[in-house]
Write a structure and sequence with these properties.
mainly alpha, GMP Synthetase, Chain A, domain 3, 3-stranded mixed β-sheet
Length: 512
Amino acid sequence: MPYGFLVIGLIVGLAVGYVIDRLMKGAAYRTRDQIIEDAAREAENFRKTREIEAKEELLKRREALDLELNAVREKLRQEERKLDKREAALDEMKTDIRKKEGMLQTMQKRVADRAKAIEAREAELAKLLQQEQDELFKITGLDKVAATEKLLTRLEQHLQSETGAVIMRHEAHLKEEKERLSREIIGMAVQRYASQHTSETTVSTVDIPNDEMKGRIIGREGRNIRAFEKETGVDVIVDDTPGVVVVSAFDNVRREIAKLSLAKLIQDGRIHPTRIEEVVAETTKEMDEHILRLGKEASQEAEVFNLHEKLIQLMGRMNFRVSYSQNVLRHSIEVAHLTGMMAEQLGLDGVLARRCGFLHDIGKAADHEMEGGHPAIGAELLKRYGEGEEVVHAAFGHHDDIRPEYIYTVLVAAADAVSASRPGARRETLEKYVRRLEELEAVANGFPGVNQTYAVQAGREVRVIVDPKEVNDREAAKMARDIALAIEQSMTYPGEVKVTVMREIRAVGVAK
């Protein structure tokens, strides 16, 4: 029995397991079909969504293209309107040109008719003059030859009287001409050469990109700025001024080296004592080359050649030296040209004179390295580097420290004084220069019929505009001579002053 129950239980268990397995497989099949159906439904929905989005994107692009096309069409319409306006303007211009051509033809015809009338009147006038002349001959009882001789005799007597007056006037001014001759030589040299001078200061500013850079320039506990000031010998001022750092030094060469070095460090961004030493050394080398190049260019401009290289370098250093706001190198070039011009006018050696003038202030390039004034220092340097006695003496005596032994020393002293005192060279002479221009204009404005007066060419020419209704052509010529005489009598000036009187008549017509 127990065995039978066991078999029955086994059969029942197998039946129950079979039923449960069938039930589970049916559920699995139903789940798979449901998943496939859902996936198909989602795919269909996704496809429809993408189709809708694609259509919307296509519509947006079509709208953008329509807008762009409308803009292009509008631009074309504007260009078309502009072309229409230009075409209309051209048509108006053509019409105006035709009108002007007609007017020109009419005027040409009138001018031709008037010329014929003038010729006829001139012929009639000549006939009347001949009749009057014949009538005068009958009244006086003289023939043509006798009347001519009598007029020539009176004219000769009048000319002799005028000649005597001119001789007396020139004899009275003979002494003045002796002094004026020397002034004219200097004045003509100044007029032929005039260079510009710029004033310089003892500080330079270096732009920085931001205020954070100020902290990097100073460095931790100020080590960077101390290293920079030690290497360059300048004072670096970092204050509250935004965007700039100030470099201060009385030695312009050191200040320029410091300015360039600081600009390089700011651009590089690496600011520390080692890098500062490298940049300053590199900039110093570049500055030495730049100074030598400046000296060579200056010697070529002054036409002074075969100089010792040390002298060329010293002359280049003077580009960074100023005296009473006057650049010393530009001053030396100007003195060289002025001395050469005056020497050539006097029949002397212009090449040697330019050399003396160019090197006369060279002591200023080394006066901080040697004891004594710049004339003595310059003479010592020139003697050391093989310059001639005339050049050495000119440098030593151009300030009248010694008695001049060569004419070139006198010329250099005169050119030095002219360069320092001519209008525009130094600040304190600007007022005198402006006053002289105002006096020139005032002299011309004192004549009747003058509308406007302009002093141009640094006071070497006066242009006078007169009223054409009050002054005719002959009176304008006489006025030019009278104004020139008035300037000669009332003013002192170098060289010559040209007086130009301009008379202009304008005829204006309006066509309606």
